[in-house]
Amino acid sequence: MGRLTRLDDVLFPVEAHPIFVSAQSVSGEKRISVPDKKAIVHGVTGAVLGIVSRGYRLVSHRQALEWTFQCCRAVFPETNSSEWAVKAVDAPSPGGHCCVDLAHHSTALDFSLVSPQGRPEVFGPFIRVTNSYNGLRALVFDIGFLRKVCTNGLILRDAIIQFKFAHMRRDIGEQIQFHVAYERLAKLRARFGPPLSEEDKISAGR
């Protein structure tokens, strides 16, 4: 099975449809609705991507990506949305779930306040969003840093924070609020760069 690796390939429209089954009776074939289930359907091909419960909160890959840019701003308030770019996309060919990586375009954050001895080799911050249409995967935002670990250019992801939302209406409303634990984040960021300034904390809505 091939993989989808271009952003445009995973941003297709999706729709939720009721489910019916065909059953034979003495009076002939009847269509019976399945009241507690619905089908998530590819809006272009018509393929069924998943069968989910009625309480399932449908989040399109496009919506998940928009929320990812909001997540970037919430966790790294010293950056702008325009400074983040999609670096990698991975999904199975039907597109039932996908992972999209965003990375900050700078080579590193500002480490001027960190002593040279404590300054790590950092490529830059990243955020990975995982989304699905089959209910098997939650909507997840993994936040961390891409790190250069050897001279051959190998890049490893070092995740430091994760936001995870089950695809249920009670967990995902019309909008997602990213509540950042800044005390914990400050300790984790100490390995990579200076802590947030008071101005950044205020702009992030602390």
Could you explain how this protein is built, in words?
This protein has 206 residues and is α+β, with helices and mostly antiparallel strands. The chain has two domains: 10-53, no CATH class; 61-203, no CATH class. The protein has helices spanning 7-10, 61-75, 182-189, 198-203, and strands at 3-4, 14-25, 28-42, 48-53, 84-92, 97-104, 122-132, 139-148, 155-165. The longest helix is centred in the N-terminal third of the chain and has 15 residues, at 61-75. The termini are far apart. Mean pLDDT is 79; it is low at 200-206.
Quick one: overall form? elongated
Rounded average pLDDT = 79
Q: Low-confidence parts, pLDDT < 50 over ≥5 residues?
A: 200-206
Strand content: 35-45%
How many discrete structural domains?
2
Question: Helix/strand/pairing class, anyone?
Answer: alpha+beta
Q: Compute the separation of the termini in Å.
A: 45 Å
DSSP strand tally: 9
Oligomer: single chain
Structure at a glance:
The protein has 206 residues and is of the alpha+beta class.
What's the layout of helices and strands?
Blueprint: E1 3-4, H1 7-10, E2 14-25, E3 28-42, E4 48-53, H2 61-75, E5 84-92, E6 97-104, E7 122-132, E8 139-148, E9 155-165, H3 182-189, H4 198-203
Antiparallel strand pairs: 1-5, 2-3, 3-4, 5-6, 6-7, 7-8, 8-9
Tags for this model:
alpha+beta, six-stranded antiparallel β-sheet, 9 strands, elongated
